[in-house]
Amino acid sequence: MTNTQFGEECDIVAVLTPKPGKLDRVAELLTKLTACVKKNEPGVLSFHLYKDFDRETGQEELVLVEKYVNKEAYDLHAELPDFQAMHATFRAEELMAKPILVKSVKPLKKLWTLATLNFRSTFLSHIPISVPNSGLSVKSIVTAMNIRTVVEAFCADFANGTHPTTILDTRFTSNPEIYEYGPDWARSRLPYLGRSWTGRRSSSTPSSEEDTTCDAYFDVLGQTLFFEPDNREPTSPPDQFLVSASNGSDDAVMVKLTSTVGSIATGKKWVETFVFLFGRFDAQGRIGKLEIWSDSLSAWVNSE
């Protein structure tokens, strides 16, 4: 498990994915470690083991939610013989289906602690997170952090002017969908509006008027408008990224972006604010759907 850089209390969420048929063995080892921790490590404030279910893969998982008095206590925990022996057994018996996922988290308010797991909403790294009424799943915490990271990377690409093909290749699933809302009457000047762009263009298939792939969306957009993002602050601050994580198909991130926009036809420019809604994330956190709300009226007026 990795080190963290927290000044005081240190919160850790670790997700372990055993191989099929090995969950009970891993749970046995973790339960044994838990007893040793509670007996021998005064620097551990809480150390709880949960079982979860990955809806993407169908695999059962084990989740450790840990709290330490400080980083030094966490580092000491990772160096103790009981911890090292457990990981040696993981390797010797080949118990894990994939590497252990470890996340460092920190509640915005101390009265909301991960160990209770009985509240309906919380904040992770200053990210507002909405969760279903049934309560907060530990896996939702990890999911929220993963999808937020992907969206932050997308926003950085936007600010840096990364080529759309690269963005599609690295940030999106293999069969994404993009939809930018706008009135039908505006499509004569803004043909990217009000239609569903789906999938990716084959490398052997040239662009055409019938092309409705996501690659074509960026082609049409680039033939209509140009963008000059403010590299200093093109998106809303991370503490205003709205993340809804339920570890399922409804996971979503909403972000506000601002850019100077110009018309290719007229050269006129205006400052515009967009709202991007990212969803349908796959198991790797890649974006499956992007919905966009923009100032289509300004684009329409300035494109004549």
Automatic annotation (TrEMBL):
Coiled coil: none annotated. It comes from the Eukaryota. Gene3D superfamilies: 3.30.70.100. Residues 10-102 form the ABM domain. This is ABM domain-containing protein.
